[in-house]
Amino acid sequence: MDFDGFQLLIERDYKEFAEFEENSKNMSLEELKENHNNWRNKMKDITEKYGFSNESEKDPDISLFMVKLTYFYYLAMFCWKSLRAYTERLAEEHQKLKKSKRKTTAKKKAKKKE
Q: What is the pTM of this model?
């Protein structure tokens, strides 16, 4: 793939991730986890397909190498941010569960006293 191809991939994925960030507040925990897994798999596939190194080329093109690294950087950031959104939601759900458990336990103790 050439320089312009990687630029187009960066733009496409950036738009896709911006939509995810916008919609992530309304997503369920399962949707957030699925989205993170999709980004992680995409990063794995792209890395396997295009690789990081320029060693295979006899006359390496530094601009192509830099745009590749930029693309991999963006993929890593998207993957990390989707994981952060998932873990933050997981923490919120955990806190809600703890609060409801405390309320349930307090009600049971109050009934036992009566």
A: 0.73
